[in-house]
Input
Amino acid sequence: MNRPDNVPLPAVRRLCLYLRQLEIIHAADSQTVSSKQLGAVLGISDAQIRKDLAHFGQFGQPGVGYRVPEMVARLREILGTDRTANVLLMGAGNLGRALLSYKGFTKRGFEIVAVFDNHPALIGTLLGADRDLRVRHPDEMPEIVEARSIRFGILAVPGSAAQQATDKLVEAGVRAVLSFAPCTIKVPQDVAVSSVDLSVQLEQLSFQISGVAPM
Amino acid sequence: MNRPDNVPLPAVRRLCLYLRQLEIIHAADSQTVSSKQLGAVLGISDAQIRKDLAHFGQFGQPGVGYRVPEMVARLREILGTDRTANVLLMGAGNLGRALLSYKGFTKRGFEIVAVFDNHPALIGTLLGADRDLRVRHPDEMPEIVEARSIRFGILAVPGSAAQQATDKLVEAGVRAVLSFAPCTIKVPQDVAVSSVDLSVQLEQLSFQISGVAPM
DNA sequence: TTTTGTGAATTGCTTCACAGCA
DNA sequence: TGCTGTGAAGCAATTCACAAAA
Output
C-alpha cells in the first residue's frame, strides 16, 4: 500500500474523523461528498481535508467530489481497520467493565477478546454482555496474545499499577496501548501509546473557560 | 491573574501533565525540580517546559530550578483547579456509571454532583459509591446548574442522542463539555468542548503500527 | 461551473543558544 | 558551575490561490 512515512499526527487524527463522518453520510445514502461539505460538518477547512488526503494519492474527481463508498474503503485500508482486530483489556475494575460493555469498539472493528487482572478475587469471574469472557491472570497473557494475534491492549488499571502492567503488555507482544492511567508510561520505541487521562481533559477545559467569564 | 490570551493548546495540555507530575514529585518530598529533570520523566524537552511556563511569568530560580509546592499552587491557579468544581453527568448508562465511580476526578478537584438521563426507567434511581445521587430528568437541569454553580458537563450518551443532549447542557448554562459520544457536536463559540472518542483513539494507534511490521 | 490537487505563502510551534542570575 | 528566561532560528502545519479536470 502507498504509505508515506511523514504523515503528521494531527492529520491521522482527522482521517479518523473523516472516516467516521463518511460512514454516517454513507448510511444516509449519499453517493458523493465534496471536501467543502465534509469540512462544514466537521468544522475543518476544505483545503485541510484535501491536503490530508493528498498524503495517500488521488481520491476524488474534480467538479464532482469524493465517491463515498470508495473513500470509506480506502480510509479503512489506510488506517488498518479494514478487518476486525483483536484487543485485550488489562484491568477489570469499574472502568474496564464499562469498556467491555461499550459497543462502539465492535462497531468500528475492534473486539475485546481477553481480559486480565491482577486481583485474585476477580480472576475466573465471567464478564461481558454474554458472560463469555473469563478474567485471566496476567501470566497467561503471552500465550493468549500469540494465539489470538492480539496487537492492541487497553490499560484500565490504577496509576500505581500502570507501569508494571504496561511492561507485561509489551513483554507479551502487544504493539499498541490505549492507556486510561493518570500517569506517563514508558514503552519501547516500536510500541505506540495513546493516553486518555480524563482529569487532564477536564483541566484543559477548565483553563479554556477560566478568565473568559469570571465565576 | 496574569492570563495571556494566546497560549497554544498543546502548551495547555502539557501544563496539565506538569501539574500531574509535580504532584507526584511533591508527594515524594522533593522540594525543587529543574526543567531538565521534569522533562526527562515526561519525555519533553527542557526548553519546551520553560517556554510553556514563560507564558505565565517568572516561575523558577536560575541555578536552582522550580520550587515544587509553589509551582503546584501556581499551576492549579492557572488551570483554574485551585478549588473544587462541580460537574454534572448526562447519561447514566454503563460508561456514565463507571465515570461516577472513578475516583480520579475528585482527586483532582472535579466532583460529579448531579446525574441526568432521558430514560424513564433510570430516573429516580440512586447511583454513586454512597448511593447519594438520584438520577434526574433533564428538565431539572437549568435549576440544578444554577443552584450548584455547575460549569462542567460530562456527556456519556449514545451518538444518536448526543447533539440533543448537548443543546440541553448548553441551554442550562454549562460552559464546558467533555464528550464521549462518537460524533461531532455543535456548540456556541463561548462553550468549550473536548471530545474523547475511544474508537478514534484505537484507529490512530492502528495507523501508527500498520506498515511498520506486517501482520 | 464546480471541485480537486498542489506549489507558495503564511502562521504557529518547537528547538537552539546564550545572557543573566544564584 | 547550574539553571532560568528569552530572542532568534528552524521546522512543521495550515491556509491561500490557482491550474487542470469533469
Observations:
- The first helix of chain A runs from residue 9 to 27.
- The CA atoms of residues 25 and 68 of chain A lie 8 Å apart.
- The longest strand of chain A covers residues 110-116.
